[in-house]
Amino acid sequence: MSVNESKAAEIVNSEKFKKLVSKRVNFSISLTVLMLSVYFGFILVIAFSKELLSVKIGEHLTIGIPIGIGMILFAWILTGVYTQWANKTYDKSVRELRNQILQK
Amino acid sequence: MENFQSTLGQVNIASIIIFFLFVGITLAITYWAAKKTKTTSEFYAADRSISGFQNGLALAGDYMSAASFLGIAGMVALKGYDGLIYSIGFLVGWPLVMFLIAEPLRNLGKFTFADVVAFRLQQKPVRIASSFGSLMTIVFYLIAQMVGAGALITVLFGLPYEVAVIIVGIVMVSYVLFGGMLATTWVQIIKAILLLGGATILVVMTLSHFDMNPIKLINAAAQKYSAAVLSPGGFVTNPWDAISLGIALILGTAGLPHILMRFFTVPDAKQARKSVFIATGFIGYFYILTFAIGFGAMVLVGQDLISSFDKGGNMAALLLAESVGGNLFIGFIAAVAFATILAVVAGLTLSGASTLSHDLYVNVIKKGKSDEKGEVKVARISTLVIGVLAIVLGLVFKGQNVAFMVGLAFAIAASANFPSLILSILWKKFTTKGAVASIVTGAGLAIILIFLSPTVWVEIFHNPEAIFPLKNPALISMTASFIVGIVVSLISPEPEAQSKFEDEKLRTYLGIGAE
């Protein structure tokens, strides 16, 4: 496969490609901000009002334990959300644009 | 159960047999891999033949060090909930690796992350600066691992420290020297399976004492000690300290050269993405296991006995293994801990060797013109250099307090490697001078500030008061690195680099022209 140079130049400047890039960058940065806010929010709760995490929800069990384990699960779920989005939405547009640029 | 006699520190036949089995199998794999390791792409990147799932396991194997297995379980055993807070910081960097780094890195780079930073900038200055950041990260991480390995093996197998360090050095160099990335990857995969499997069995055996109910384990811990073990304790007293450490762990994960290098082993960006999903899942699962292991050790072994072996609690997981599974099981877990160290140092060595040979020798000294055979030879010599350096540093730092070096490695990765990498991917106006200034500022400040911090200035040099207040410098050094990188780029525009940025996008986002 070789690159069709004129097509490549056309696509780089196309609205469709620019939209795709900004969609990808915006989605990535939104998820990054979400992850960082949740994590540093958790740290600030511990720093300023840790008694919130000591609230009992069982005989001895505190709410801090499911929240802490939830943090781990949340981080993993976010990677799953991104993977799903990229596999379903992003990759489709990537394939279309690639096929236009690459000549068989 | 409480007063069982531990055999820790005595020669354990089971552990020696399992360890030799591991070394034997991995060396056999190395022999197989050596036949497939002739070109540069094979040596540095396993010829991009690793699947997303395999790479996910290998990433987990590269990242889950003996320090996190033994250290975090020990911290939970002695301090309870605080250990969980600490472990979460190590996981949160992974989603960022996926969102910001993995795919552009795979598409733009060839063998090292410096390929990406230098992509549209002037090769020579950027490569030299990136190599400096890379090598600083690797050397500090390597010292911490080697010293930890020597000390751990002395306790586990009753071997002298020096012998332990030399064995670790020789075995890891054999993997990398002969088998390159392919052998290193399989060592990491096998280690990840052993560690995850071993930790799972340990948790199941522990829970069998509590009717398989984790809540009962937690209740037992609260009854035996106090309800305080289930709540945040003294880990986050100064919020600025916690934020700075968080930044180092999170952005540092996204700037560790040996982790970043693994993304060049998969065929494309899609597999790179998948490998982070797999790695994050396994690493998260592993931290949940260490949390249960810590509480198990707290209840079944007891805090007094754990601290009598090691003040930091590092022996908690091993003592628990002996308490629930006897001599054979502690032997198994000890061998797994040894294997863990080998896999991590092999990854670090390969990454250091690639920086020396690919970034410095080929792209700086030879100006990018080098034949395949010559480069593989230089890569192998570099492996020997890093291996010998690791052994020497391991011996030099014997008995020293090197725990701060892991924090320092993460701080440098977060302050030198991450800012330059992310700016080069996302920011059109980033320039050669900006990159160099950003890396030098980040690495330099991280090193200077940690020596003036309570971690080194007070705890190691025994001064009464620290000159720099934070225990980890990342908050300041990372921020300074970004500011300097941006300001210097703005006052020294590089039109050539800017014009390449648009074309680079086809490669970054569509993978056109990717290696």
Structure commentary:
The complex is a heterodimer of chains A (104) and B (515). With 104 residues, chain A is mostly helical. Chain A has one domain (2-103). Chain A is built from three helices and two strands. Chain A has helices spanning 5-12, 15-48, 64-101; strands at residues 2-3, 102-103. The longest helix of chain A is centred in the last third of the chain and has 38 residues, at 64-101. Chain A is elongated. The model of chain A has no long low-confidence stretch (mean pLDDT 91). By secondary structure, chain B is mostly helical. Chain B has a single domain (13-399), classed as Sodium/glucose cotransporter (Up-down Bundle), CATH 1.20.1730.10. Chain B has 21 helices and no strands. In chain B, helix 9 crosses helix 15 (316-365). The model of chain B has no long low-confidence stretch (mean pLDDT 92). The chains are: A mainly alpha (104), B mainly alpha (515). The interface between A and B is large, with 54 and 54 residues.
Please name the defining characteristics of this protein:
heterodimer, A: 104 residues, mainly alpha, two-stranded antiparallel ribbon, elongated, B: 515 residues, 21 helices
- Could you describe the largest sheet of chain B, including whether it forms a barrel? none
Uncertain segments of chain A: none
How many strands of chain A? 2
Q: For the terminal residues of chain B, how far apart are their CA atoms?
A: 58 Å
What is the string of SSEs of chain A from the N terminus onward?
EHHHE
Counting DSSP H or I runs of 4 or more residues, the number of helices of chain A is: 3
What share of the residues of chain A lie within helices? over 70%
- N/C terminus separation of chain A: 5 Å
What class would the helix/strand composition of chain A place it in? mainly alpha
CATH architecture of chain B: Up-down Bundle
The CATH fourth-level homologous superfamily of chain B = Sodium/glucose cotransporter
State the major sheet of chain A. 2 strands, antiparallel
Low-confidence stretches of chain B: none
Mean pLDDT of chain A: 91
